[in-house]
Amino acid sequence: MGELYELFPKLPKNIRQIGERDQVLKLYVEDYVNTYLKQLRPPKGSDLRVGLLLGSREIHEDVPYVFVDGALEMETVTKEGEKVAFTEDAWKKAYQEVENRFPKRTVQGWFLCGNPGCTLNPLNYWREHSHYFTGKNQLMYLNSGLEGEESVYITSSDGFYKLRGYSIYYERNQMMQDYMIARKDVPRAEAGVNDRAIQDFRQKMEERKGEVIRHRSTVGALSMVCTALAITVLAGGVAMFNNYKKMHQMENVIASVLPEGVVRSGLLASGKEDDGKWIEEAAAKVYPSEETARTETEVTAGEKPAAVTPETMEERDNETEETVIKSQAPEGVTEETVLENEKSTSAETVSAPSYKVYTVGEGETLYGICFKVYHNVNRVDEICRINDLGDQNSIYAGQKLLMP
């Protein structure tokens, strides 16, 4: 099995053959150059248009490969009829134009284009070709007008050798396109070129160009979508961070107004403890009564409380109990009577009804107290009468009640 190899030199992919394949010289002419030469018509008062063929060449197995991708017309070289006379000024101007418009290209020969119907004989230009285009295999391209006869010659040992054919290849030849646009007096009459292969190739090029444009549009749209998503995610993160800060500030405010002693760890915890813990603890807390609040206010205002000892605590309890008994005793019952009843509770015979003192707790009701003490609610009216209560719901925490 033979080894795979790449031909040298590297040939263009899209090629159209004109005539037969020649074994002496392989000529490849770019499509824009071919179109330019076929459309090049002499102006009025002249029979010829003359210029240079530009490109490059390579040798492979003693066969020259010539690639022509530029054509530059020379000014002031044609004379009356079909005569050509190169001048030093014309050569200088031509080489300056080559450097500006076709850099890194060398002269591969020249072209002569006449009016339609004329017959261009290569022998008429043999001297000019041998004098100005010295070297082996220099090209002479002859074209007798639009869609007329064309031929390519090279020098040989016995005169001129006519090539059997050449190849046209297609590529993006920006240099030649710019030159053709600059030559406004040489329009490209593509409508007159009735070549199916050229039209198909250019149609494919337009389709590929459209695909590239659509691909770029798709990439641009995806970039915009990704940018919008990134902005949305960033905005969401900023909003979450702001909400977290607001919630944290609110927790600090709530914790700052809680009564002293309420456990705040449940409120400020990170979710490991029950968030309602502090509420339950606050509900179980017995808040100070109005009298205690007033006392605390007076102390805060600057009054220095007296030292509290066990003896003074006992005296205060006794005084408070006597005061409550005196203030809440029913009509006809004096303080002495109540005290005597309490002192004679151990006697076998009781001369007067005795009462017990009950301190109302936080959240208790009269019905609940009655059921707690007597296991029924039959004495609610009696307790109201003894304590002079106009409403069963008018009791408060810390109130002293006489219980029959």
Automatic annotation (TrEMBL):
<dbReference type="InterPro" id="IPR036779">
    <property type="entry name" value="LysM_dom_sf"/>
</dbReference>
<feature type="transmembrane region" description="Helical">
    <location>
        <begin position="219"/>
        <end position="241"/>
    </location>
</feature>
<feature type="region of interest" description="Disordered">
    <location>
        <begin position="289"/>
        <end position="321"/>
    </location>
</feature>
<feature type="compositionally biased region" description="Acidic residues">
    <location>
        <begin position="312"/>
        <end position="321"/>
    </location>
</feature>
<dbReference type="InterPro" id="IPR018392">
    <property type="entry name" value="LysM"/>
</dbReference>
<keyword id="KW-0472">Membrane</keyword>
<keyword id="KW-0812">Transmembrane</keyword>
<keyword id="KW-1133">Transmembrane helix</keyword>
<feature type="domain" description="LysM">
    <location>
        <begin position="356"/>
        <end position="403"/>
    </location>
</feature>
<dbReference type="Pfam" id="PF01476">
    <property type="entry name" value="LysM"/>
</dbReference>
<protein>
    <recommendedName>
        <fullName>LysM domain-containing protein</fullName>
    </recommendedName>
</protein>
